Amino acid sequence: MKPPLSASSHVLRKARLFPYLVTLLSFIVFVAVLYGEDFICLFSQPLQLGSYRYQPSTRTEKKWKKLPFALGKTEEGCDVFSGRWVWDESTRPLYQESECPYIQPQLTCQERGRPEKDYQHWRWQPHDCSLASFNATLMLETLRGKRMMFVGDSLNRGQYVSFVCLLHSIIPEDAKSMETFDSLTVFTAKDYNATIEFYWAPFLLESNSDNAVVHRISDRIVKKGSINKHGRHWKGVDILVFNTYLWWMTGLKMKILLGSFDDEVKDIVEVSTEDAYRMAMKSMLRWVRKNMNPKKTRVFFTSMSPSHAKSIDWGGEPGLNCYNETTLIEDPNYWGSDCRRSIMQVIGEVFDKSKFPITFLNITQLSSYRKDAHTSIYKKQWSPLTPEQLANPVSYADCVHWCLPGLQDTWNELLFAKLFYP
């Protein structure tokens, strides 16, 4: 039988274990600091997407009870993004295409020969409340002495142009202007000392598609940790509206540059689209947290804009798309194959951990019903159409962008509602 341990041997054993305990505790502290937010997310309540509708967490809203610019609150229990489209000839459209000189020729569908205007007469009606009417006077007074900026791709530029069209008619002709400086377009309301701007950054991060004019690159590459390349142009903005989605959809993988675009031999890795998108969202939120004041400024993020390139998605004939479509999709649960559910999941995961109040504009589902609202063939073409294309309009129909006036005016009504009644 072994003799019992003496007090000295017990102390000796504890002394031998002490360095290991210190190392273990140090490692636990290091991991907790490094991955603390991830653990919080992992062990918190699972994200509820409903019909893949991201519902923003209420944690931010509770922390920031009074958001800047807010005049009131949305009615209790009202989700303004859940509703239906109703026919309205009395209040739609909110402006005339011919009366807004700022619409790009890629979006002027009537001028390009679209034979009907039904797409202009639909109004979004939330199920459980009413949507606040867009008030141009209130919006301009709110922007007095301030800057508002839309940052993203051509879909965000369409929303930007729609916003300008909703405002410009109450501004005297000699008191407004629009100028473009490379990636930046600035609309100025001179009497209000206010600017409404658009900044071209389709990935938000630096990429090889950053040229505002020459950016049609199939082999897209995004530089990791490079948001400040564009972000320096966003500083000092009071209301910021981000979007990014379409340019990430190159397949299941995305090329990420770890060094510089100037390097002779570039260090490029391929990661899943979801991981690349998550990287961009985290970069955006870090920039916002460091550069925006939650007591004075507001940040919005517009969700993915759906396209309608496959008519079989809504029960149509194979091989067709949005061309010649003049009716809405009536299935309330419709979700097209072009909207990647996993990206909505990424948005939910990242935004729920945000330490800054981000207002999420969930336009995806309501826009999915609008296969009638795309520019289709009624737009200025980038290059002359071939005889083969002309013989088959489906082959060159644009089922990504939207006619103005039209659907994107509703996006701005939702932006207006969430700015003043969050």
TrEMBL record:
Write out the entry's keywords from A to Z: Membrane, Signal-anchor, Transmembrane, Transmembrane helix
Show the InterPro entries listed in the entry: TBL, TBL_C, TBL_N
Highest taxon listed in the record's lineage: Eukaryota
Q: Which residues form the Trichome birefringence-like C-terminal domain?
A: 131-417
- Domain Trichome birefringence-like N-terminal, which positions? 77-130
Does the keyword field hold Cytoplasm?
A: no
Q: How does it sit in the membrane?
A: Single-pass membrane protein
Where mainly found? membrane
Protein's UniProt keywords contain DNA damage: no
Subcellular localization, per the record?
Membrane
Gene Ontology molecular function terms on file = O-acetyltransferase activity
Q: What Gene Ontology cellular-component terms does the record carry?
A: membrane
Membrane-spanning parts:
17-36
The record's family statement is: Belongs to the PC-esterase family. TBL subfamily.
**Protein name in the entry:** Protein trichome birefringence-like 33
Source organism (scientific name): Juglans regia
Taxonomic classification: Eukaryota, Viridiplantae, Streptophyta, Embryophyta, Tracheophyta
